[in-house]
Amino acid sequence: MDEKHPEQRKHLFGENYQGYELPDGSYVPGGSYAPDPRRVWGWFEGSLPYGWSWSGTRVLDLAGNNGYHGLRALREGAASATLVEAHPDACKKAEEVAREWGLTFHVKQRDIETHPWDKGDPFDVIFAHQVLYHLERPIHLLRRVAGVLAPGGVFATYTRIALNVHEKHWEWVPNKATMRTTLEYAGFRSVSFHGPRNALRDISPSDERFGVGDRAWRVQREGQRKVLVVAQV
Fold first, then answer.
1. pLDDT tens, the chain, 233 aa long
2. Residue 140 Ramachandran class (φ > 0 left, ψ -120 to 50 alpha, else beta)
3. Could you tell me the CA-to-CA distances from 52 to 30, 56, 60, 112, 149 in Å, in that order?
4. Domains parsed from the chain with CATH numbers
5. Angle between helices 88-101 and 68-75 (to 10 degrees)
6. What angle do CA 61, 64, 68 make, to 5 degrees?
7. pTM here?
8. DSSP 221-233
9. Is 58 helix (H, G, I), strand (E, B) or coil?
């Protein structure tokens, strides 16, 4: 993939895209087309190694919009968290929410494909929420991520997975086997997939047993679904 498809150039979401939580217990939802980050976080927590502790961890949230995952890590006890996000409004929202929580959140308005975020001390956890399929060179980014994770570090990305090897799309939408192989090539191990049971099933677009009504039609039409992919170095 040498250059962005015209549709990819549109995908720079502002402050109202991703939902966020406030200290009073309220949740401000994002766009109707955006996944609930609380649900994705739940899958991520369930994937962490037994005995995992956030204490002392350094976290990087790549193109994380308002930084839900980085902020959530801070709330769970992470030592530090950095957001690298291109949209100025999303960065401002991340800073506003961090102030509400009384947390120090390092927010950098940068393009993750050109900014050298992979220099300096290693990170223990890196999030890339709905990022890979918008990139010109997703494999290049994966290798950069693997290179800046500390030994045993965790990478998590909520991304699109094709239903089978024959599915074609203008974005990078690999099937599960290709995603696993690509991550291993980039330097990762212990690759796992998490999400709703139906989304994790290995099916073909013609499998009429998958879902009912509009949901079944949409999955067959698009030939893909979104899952959380977690890997370690």
1. 445 444 444 445 555 789 999 999 999 998 888 889 999 999 999 999 889 999 999 999 999 999 999 999 999 999 999 999 999 999 999 999 999 999 999 999 999 998 889 888 999 999 999 999 888 889 999 999 999 999 999 999 999 888 655 455 557 888 888 999 999 999 999 999 998 876 666 655 455 444 544 454 444 445 678 899 999 99
2. alpha
3. 29, 11, 17, 28, 16
4. 8-232 (3.40.50.150)
5. 20
6. 85
7. 0.84
8. HH-EEEEEEEEE-
9. strand
SS3 98: helix
Task: Name which of 7, 18, 140, 1 is nearest 87 in CA terms.
Answer: 18
Beta bridge partners of 232: 154, 189
Q: Each residue of 145-181: b (16+ CB within 10 Å) or e?
A: bbebbeeebbbbbbbbbbbbeebeeebbbbbbeebbe
Residue type, 192: S
Contact 78, 60 (CB under 8 A): no
Q: Cβ–Cβ contacts within 10 Å for residue 95, how many? A: 16
What's the residue count for the chain? 233
Compute how many other C-beta atoms are within 10 angstroms of the C-beta atom of residue 110: 17
Rounded Cα–Cα distance for residues 65 and 207 (Å): 35
User: 2 in helix, strand or coil?
Assistant: coil
